[in-house]
Please model this.
Amino acid sequence: MTPHLSLRDRFLAALISGVGALYLRGVGISSRLTVHRSPGVLEREGKNLPIVYAFWHRHQLLLLYVHRGRGVRVLVSRSRDGEFVARALHRLGFRTARGSSSRGGGGAFRDLLDTVQAGGSVAFTPDGPRGPLRSVQPGVVALAARTGAPVVPVAWAGTRVKELNSWDRFLVPLPLGRYAVVYGEPVFLAEEGPAAEGRVRDAIDAAVREAEKRLGDATCC
Model:
């Protein structure tokens, strides 16, 4: 279900989504991106096995370019702003499940569950959409534990980045930069709860450190 939009909002949604998708393509084309996938990720992607990708909310923008055209399903709120985001995602080849913890979350979770059980992959920002920063909401853990699909932590670091003054210190990649993207080893979760959430948090943080290290190694040589 999508929100009812006025004529003005429909125009803005089309404009913002189009400009946003064009901007990300411009960043990707003009920059040097190196992508590092762990052996476990290469194996699962090579066999087209389902994956639950997880990354911090502040890192999502560049990853929309990296994951473009692969049909990954992403959770997006039913709000007006969420509609703008959803339309940009569709332009980049994503699918969406509409809902959040405050509105339509149950139906959206079932959509994601059905996607993974059918062999598709999904993406989560465990601390989104409102935080706290680096918190892990139970949805990503529940999905992985109930389907058997692993959580794959993803992160990136770059040389030309604008950090916004938002709750998550959102990162905007700029054109003509150098970026390192890291996919960590898959994390299989047998059960839900704080311990599993801690494993996901540690895995994403480790991917962040690895991306920063790889970027530093590349820029110093």
Summary: DSSP finds seven helices and nine strands in the chain. The domain at 7-220 is CATH 3.40.1130 (Glycerol-3-phosphate (1)-acyltransferase). The chain has a mean pLDDT of 90.
